[in-house]
Amino acid sequence: MKKVTVVADRVVGSCSAKIVAGDKMVFEGANLNLAETTRVCPFALSTIYPIIFAARLGHDIAEFGLKERVVQCIDPGPPLSEGGTVFWKVLQDE
After folding, report:
1. Tens-of-pLDDT digits for all 94 residues of the chain?
2. Which long-range contacts (CB under 8 A, 24 or more apart) does 72-77 make?
3. How many CB atoms lie within 10 A of CB 45?
4. Count of domains forming the chain
5. pTM value?
6. Based on CB atoms within 10 Å of each CB, which residue in 2, 15, 16, 22 is the most buried?
7. CA–CA gap between residue 21 and residue 79 (Å, rounded)
8. What are phi and psi of 87, to 5 degrees?
9. 94 DSSP assignment
10. DSSP 82
């Protein structure tokens, strides 16, 4: 299984989980590597986990029709909500 790192690429508004650009979640197999992870957002996992699951099995996420390896969290951010939205970049180790 491949190692998959998900990095907060940019934040619009104010994320209620306090995610800032550069924060990351690192997955090895089915586990979250807490030593390398800087901050976890369970809400973001609901959106990005299907991509992480496929990426850790070695699938290139370009197969899903995504132009970039960027996934948005479920909070739409301003002006639609008072929170913020995070755009996560999914990186696969080769």
Report:
1. 678 899 999 999 888 889 999 999 998 877 899 999 999 988 888 888 888 777 777 777 777 766 667 888 888 888 888 888 999 998 876 5
2. 72/47, 73/15, 73/41, 73/43, 73/44, 73/47, 73/48, 74/43, 74/44, 74/46, 74/47, 75/15, 75/16, 75/43, 77/12, 77/13
3. 16
4. 1
5. 0.82
6. 15
7. 20
8. -100, 120
9. -
10. S
Per the structure block, which two tokens stand in for 26? 């690192």
> DSSP letters of 6-65?
EEEEEEEE--TT---TT-EEEEETTEE-TTT-----HHHHHHHHHHHHHHHTT--GGGGT
Question: In this structure, what DSSP letter does residue 78 have?
Answer: T
Range of the domain at 72: 3-92
Whole-number pLDDT of residue 36: 96
